[in-house]
Amino acid sequence: MAGLPSQLTAQEKLADAGQQVFASNCAGCHGADGHGGERAPNLATVRSVISKSDDDLESIVKKGLPGLGMPPFAYLGDDKVKSVVAYLRVLQGKTTATPVTGNSTAGRALFFGKAQCSNCHMVRGSGGFMASDLSVYGDGQASSAIQHAVVTHAPSPTSRGVKVTTKSGEKILGALRAEDNFAVTLLSPDGSFHTYDRAKVAAIQYTSESLLPKDYASRLSPTELDDLASFLITTAAQASATEKPAKRRQR
Amino acid sequence: MKLTYASLLAASLMAAACSAQKPPHASPPAKPTLREDWPTYNGDYTGRRYSSLTQVTPENVHALRAQWVFHSRNAGVLQVTPVVVAGVMFVTGSNDAYALDAVTGKTLWHHARPISDGLIDDASGHINRGVAVLGSQIYMETDNAHLLCLDARSGNLLWDVAYATGNRNYGATSAPLVVKGKVLVGTSGGDDGVRGFIAAFDAQTGKEAWRFWTIPAPGEPGSETWPKGDIYLHGGGTTWMPGTYDPELNTIFWGTGNPSPDFDGSVREGDNLYTNCLLALDPDTGKLKWHFQFTPHDVNDFDSTETPVLVDALYQGKPRKLLIQANRNGFIYTLDRTTGEFLSAKQFSLFQNWAKEIDAKGRPVRTALVPNVEGARMCPSYAGATNWYSPSYNERTHLFYFMALEDCTVFTAKTEPFEEGKAYYSTGAKHLPTEEMKKYLVAYDVRRNEIAWRSPQVGEGHSSAGVMSTASGLVAFGDDAQEFEVVNATTGAPLWHFNVGQPIHASPMSYAVEGKQYFAVAAGSDLFTFALP
Q: Which residue of B16, B106, B154 is in closest CB contact with A129?
């Protein structure tokens, strides 16, 4: 039943009101979708804008940016300014409240227990360091999408594995951290970084998949997968604005 | 996953062709000998910036050449001194931290955090001078005075503590210092009416252990040096550079900044403790052991945050635990760091007109000049006869090296109200068009209490690059003409230079990986490294 006007949250009502304010005051320069135009920049997908707090954005709307040609909009009044920022959040995809369908407490127990996610992944300072930090991974993601990612564990550029075979036949497997035509650097599970000169090893193989296991579809029940996804969604919802847009490990 | 993990672990044993970098695991730099690692902002706890590495010598330094360049895409000017532990280099720029392979310069991880809005003055420049390391964790301050704990292997955020609240003029620019399992931090904002402090946090949990306010509250010792009322809440005395630490004395030494407002002394009659001081604190409790005030009732922005360097040397024929600081006010001070006793103050600036002398107790005897409504030309300038750029003490030459600035400015003062969101200088300092700034590399002979040599630098005086020295008899520094330069530590004779193409506002360091010695220095938004072929 979500979506009926009577059931809109306060925030949704505010954004709804802001849509009209945006259309008549902002869209002319920033574009109807906030992606920018000839006269003003993209507000919808640029990290430096997304990461600003509501207070900061409201202050910019009110005062304008005189040096950059943006006029002040304080005359709209506090309510309209608030509403336009709320609508901007919709354009940025930051307010889409993702429905939590599972039990996130049970999901947390799975993350740090049976599912063994925390062997490699970290959430809010707890867990492993080999794979990505998942503290804000659930931000704006649907439970089904997260479950799909867990089950397939599709490789991403930042979780590429690499296997180095030395001339003495030793094999070292780790997560790729840096490379060029002359060397590769990997992080091994003991937490140490290793750089290998390409000319001095027997072979360097990139694993076509990530280092992660693919048997979650059989290891976890549908309910457990939903709980796990719900844990990641609720965790991301608790993160502050400064954390959200940051990619925790950029290479 | 279990299987993968078991095989990964088995395979992770070191291989012959591998340049193995052990997990970053720094033991506290208790022994004051810097070798391969450079584990803190100043290298070790003494603040000497003296490397015992000897591969690069006066004889072979001419062959030094660039190894790699790191470019920070989203920071302004880098003022960082990199920290190196076991072949991994940690660099910060604005609120971002990077781990680099110290041999190749490649980025191992990048912790990205947006810069903060609404900051003023120094904090709005988003300056960051580097990290502290303990075990597999690193610590950094953010522009808006949060202490971050990051995992050294992944860059993941472990915790985040906002440590300066109640006045939005606070900011932070410094590198933290880890002492006995605690992380010590300070703030910026001393020109903006904040109340300075040093705070210590548990390195594992981030829980606050103690906080020493540099401006005493009414009724506390030192409060008699301020007028009554709430001026103490805006008194300055900030702590924007890392201190030093003597494990034997169980004492940390920390310099404090100028009183606020900077130039208008009329609203803060008295000595204004503990501004422009050297504080000796107990690292376990934060209790004050002793203090020494360099410039009581400062009206010229003479912060005393320059590195307090710990030197064990013969003083007048007797071995003594000394503390040496080249101060912004134009004098170089020697204190007994056990007791805080003043031993000497030697004028190093060629010209100054604010003090007739420093008396036998270390207190300046002022001239009649003070900032006023019309403006008074005073020297050193508000930028100081030296500043935060690092000094170095070399135990072989017994010389103390630092960069000095000859400069004068016209100081004006007018009473203004404090306001959050605004700087609190109570007017300003202006350069006369006829005034020329000039930098010098100065070598001070600690045993003789005299200037050994003074090397004039070509340039316009706007750089803020520091100094380091090595056991092989080299002094490395950023000169005033956009060059990273190495000179003979005994004579000051230039030996080698490299044009980095942009002004240097950072202090150099040296490290080694697998027997190869490197120098590193940040310039502009880049970091350069050098080594022999």
A: B154
Task: Decide if B5 and A119 are in contact by the 8 Å CB cutoff.
Answer: yes
Which residues are bridge partners to B469 per DSSP? B50, B475
Domain that residue B352 falls in? 36-531
When CB atoms are compared, the residue of A122, A193, A212 closest to B101 is A193
State which residue of chain B sits closest to A202, comparing Cα positions: B17
Given an 8 Å threshold on Cβ–Cβ distance, is A246 in contact with B111? yes
Centroid of chain to Cα B482 = 20
Tens-level pLDDT at each residue, chain B (533 residues)? 222 322 322 222 222 233 444 444 544 444 558 999 999 999 999 999 999 999 999 999 999 999 999 999 777 899 999 999 999 999 999 999 999 999 999 999 999 998 998 899 988 999 999 999 999 999 999 999 999 999 999 999 999 999 999 999 999 999 999 999 999 999 999 999 999 999 999 999 999 999 999 999 999 999 999 999 999 999 999 999 999 999 999 999 999 999 999 999 999 999 999 999 999 999 999 999 999 999 999 999 999 999 999 999 999 889 999 999 999 999 999 999 999 999 999 999 999 999 999 999 999 999 999 999 999 999 999 999 999 999 999 999 999 999 999 999 999 999 999 999 999 999 999 999 999 999 999 999 999 999 999 999 999 999 999 999 999 999 999 999 999 999 999 999 999 999 999 999 999 999 999 999 999 999 999 999 999 99
If one counts the domains in chain B, the total is 1
Residue of B nearest to A183 (CA): B104
Run of H or E residues at B357: strand B355-358
- What is the CATH architecture assignment of A157-210? Roll (2.30)
Of A125, A173, A251, nearest to B8 by CB-CB distance is A173
The reply to whether B13 falls in a domain is no
> Domain with B256 in it: what CATH number?
2.140.10.10
State the burial class of residue B250 (Cβ atoms within 10 Å of its Cβ: 0-12, 13-18, 19+): middle
B290 domain residue, yes or no: yes
CB contact under 8 A, A193 and B11: no
Which position has the token pair 């919709």? A90
Q: What is the side-by-side order of every strand in the sheet holding A203-210?
A: A203-210, A160-165, A171-179, A183-187, A193-197, B18-21
Note whether residue B15 is domain-resident.
no
Q: Kindly report the CATH number that applies to the domain delimited by A8-91.
A: 1.10.760.10
Residue ranges of A 160-219 with Cβ closer than 8 A to chain B: 164, 166-168, 170-174, 177-180, 183, 185, 187-197, 200-201, 211-213
Within a domain: B210: yes
**Minimum CA–CA partner of A244 in chain B:** B113
